[in-house]
Amino acid sequence: MAESPDGRSAPEAETRDGGPATATAEAPKSVDELTADALVEAFAQEVAVALGRVAESAAHERTVGSTFRDLWQDYRLNDDLGPASTDTQQVLQKAFKLATTYPQKPLTVDVAASAVGEERNTPEDGLKEKFAQLRQRLNNAYGGEIEAQDPERWLGESLARLAAAVAVRDVVKMDDVALIASGDQTRSIAEAAPEVLKAAAQSQAATAEAWTGSANYRTAAERTSKLMLATTGSLGTAVGVVSHLPPGATKALVEVATGVVIVGVGAITTRRSLANQRHAGGELGGLREKSMAARENLIAAVDRLPPTSRGTQGNTGGPAR
Amino acid sequence: MAVGTMSDADMRQLIESGAAKPLLVGFEVGPTLYADAWWYVPKSSEDRNYVTAGPELSADFDQLQARVDNIDTVLARLEPTNG
Fold first, then answer.
1. Closest residue of A to B52, CA-based?
2. CA distance A29 to A32
3. Which one of A63, A64, A125, A309 is CB 3.0 to 4.6 Å from A305, fit for a cystine?
């Protein structure tokens, strides 16, 4: 399984069923679609972590499966997640199937991950380790183990965010229907996403100066974090749940989403190269590697942003104007 | 269905007054229900004018609306009952 230059498993670039790195005859996705996919993935990862918390906390483990199954159905995610293109989404869909088929059996993310591995006939492909790394990554970004007062409720709310993200993605995929995100600046997701790429490139170029507080570096990181907060904030506002997130979890989501988007945007080069499109190399060629290398620095920079830029500012109010 | 058009500013005013309801709250522009019809801004539009959706697109929006509404319903159920 491919790993990013920082030694950690890239969230989706290495997936085998339609993930960005394995695109072949499939039509290249738009930047909007890649961004929407990345957001779905970010919230799917949150669901995976929340499901783990429920499994760890449940007094009666047999209720985990039925709780997850009922919520999954209630949000009508049965058919709407689409073809699972990432490991996370495949594992969640498998968890739902297991909970439906064997409602009395204990359900954990690891159980579902093992089942997916067995299905692929590669049970030792590191899926369980990948989820352990994901949990660790979220915890690191959060600054400790993410604890929710009520894990079941967190699971319900994270599934709501996933369902909302899927709805957003469905609109984005519609032909000729504009969807323009609100935020500090009004612009389309397609307009905003290349800026993430640009920001990653800028921060890469400024890496040498990063730790001395380079203005360019700081600006790039700030833009990235604001974009992600604005976008996740919009999704959260759509379902009115972000204010219920465990304190600090927004920042953790930004960390994950930033990484996912950079991987997703990097995939554009792969797709464009596969399609032999002109002008692919000059602007975007090789940027994925740079983006991945810059990721750690972006995350660190988000940590150093003033509270007004990185808190839940974009998530607690009504629709931003 | 007759094709109507409306400016982005007019639609925003209708949303703010509560007369129109966007499919996805929190987005500056997106599919919006007004006067029992779905309105949207085509990607190809340069002036951001809303137009009415045809029957097929309206059916898609209806389906999405049902799913989004359902999210709120389930979330409300998750709210702790404080007696």
1. A177
2. 8
3. A309
Pick from B63, B45, B11: which is nearest to A170 by CA? Answer: B63
Q: Is residue B72 part of a domain?
A: yes
B11 close to A (CB below 8 A): no
CB contact, 8 Å: A70 with chain B? no
pLDDT surpasses 80 at A173: yes
Q: Give B44's contacts in chain A (Cβ within 8 Å).
A: 176
Report whether A51 contacts A157 (CB < 8 A).
Answer: no
> Is there a domain that residue B83 lies in?
no
**Cα dihedral value A215, A220, A221, A223, nearest 10:** 120
Q: Is residue B51 part of a domain?
A: yes
More reliable by pLDDT, A310 or A289: A289
Domain membership of residue B17 as a residue range: 5-78
Residue-wise pLDDT tens digits, A178-222: 877 654 444 444 454 444 444 434 433 333 233 233 344 344 444
